[in-house]
Amino acid sequence: MEPVDVAFALVGVGALLAGILPRALERRPLSMPIAFLGLGVLVFLLPTGLPSPDPLRWPEVTTHLTEIGVIVALMGAGLKIDRPLSWKRWSSTWRLLAIAMPICIAAVTLLGWWWAGLVPAAAMLLGAALAPTDPVLASDVQVGEPTDVEDSEDEVRFALTSEAGLNDGLAFPFVYAAVAVATAGLAPRQWFVDWFTVDVLYKLAVGVGGGLFVGWLLGKLFFRAPSTLRLARHSEGFLALAATFLAYGLVEVVGGYGFLAVFVAARAIRSAERTHEFHSVLHDFAEQIERLLTVLLLLLFGGAVVGGLLAPLTWQAAGVGLALVFVIRPLVGWLSLRGAPGRPAEHWVIAVFGIRGVGSFYYLAYATTKADFPQRELLWATVGLVVVVSVVVHGIAATPVMRLLDRRGERTTSAPGRSEAVLGGVRG
349-358: per-residue pLDDT in tens? Predict the structure, then answer.
């Protein structure tokens, strides 16, 4: 039995299950990520001859696989949000990004250094890597496919989708800060000016500006070009990948944050012709590719877990990871939403469902290829534990919690002073 043949069979089974499980598990307290994580554990426990997918052994491969998974998910997230961008309508998002995310990073960094015994650079990297909520694994609590109605999205699903779409790019400056400390030391005068001017101001500006430009250009090409060149007429979904890689690649070439550019480009494409059915075509294709990549990444993650990824974990580091999932994110998220649209119950759901996943793996793999971080085995073990716990706990809780929230009667939408009754069912 050749390992490559086993790999082909495994990919085929995974792709088939990716088409079956979302519908089979739609109303059950079990998510597709849990199923594929379990399948990965089972497959790599068997004597298949497959090499161990150890991210410490294959850091470059891990970086690029997770990178692709995240950017495809970001394109899908940007395309499916119906709510137009504005300061007031997106106030929950801004609070989660400007208040909750930095405080969570600081809290995890402090606990990682003081409680888990990590050196400062490693503690900073742990906080930064665990900062972004995940657009890949959070489909059960995100908005559904694009619609023609701007105010169709309830506050919970909108906030979780928009937060996941933006914080993958906005966490990057904190990762670079950890890399700077690992290479130059704690003295800020050795790295702060370059970090602030380049990694914060320049790269954020290029990410946003480049994303807007690519999205505007593609919006013109999709919807306003002469009829023979108007790509929206042909309903070709693979153009979602063209938009994804174009925005990401061009912005990265000029030194900006590609993650941020992809989401911004998706929003710009959506705003070019907000109600066009081509958005659904693009979103559906991106979602299918995202699902296949999710299957692959979760299978490999399950293999890494049984291969000993969590073996270096200490009980102190485990405590830091569990504190993030069950205490820090829920409490800080809820406090940051005080005064935001929505009812208290909605705020608690938004705060609790800060799912961690593939984005955390990307940041950790990326940073450890750029600098020598002590205790990197412990970092991987801690992040791995957080993702396992998040996948299992949030995956089990998502469906019943969202259904209960919907059935309680009124849910908040983006229209000022307006809410809408929901008769049941989970959107997305």
Answer: 999 998 888 9
pTM over 0.85: yes
| Domain membership of residue 272 as a residue range | 24-416
Q: Is the residue at 18 inside a domain? A: no
Q: Is 17 inside a domain boundary?
A: no
What phi, psi does 258 have (nearest 5°)?
-65, -35
Q: Is a pLDDT exceeding 90 seen at residue 314? A: yes
**Predicted local distance difference test score (pLDDT) of residue 31:** 82
Supply the CATH number for residue 183's domain.
Answer: 1.20.1530.20
Question: What distance, in Å, lies between the first and last C-alpha atoms of the chain?
Answer: 40
Q: How many structural domains does the chain have?
A: 1
214: pLDDT strictly greater than 90: yes
Sign of CA dihedral 390, 154, 337, 93: positive
The residue among 219, 175, 154 whose CA lies nearest residue 359 is 175
- Residue 2 belongs to a domain: no
Distance from C-alpha of 345 to C-alpha of 341, rounded to nearest angstrom = 11
Question: What sign for the dihedral angle of Cα 314, 320, 321, 325?
Answer: positive
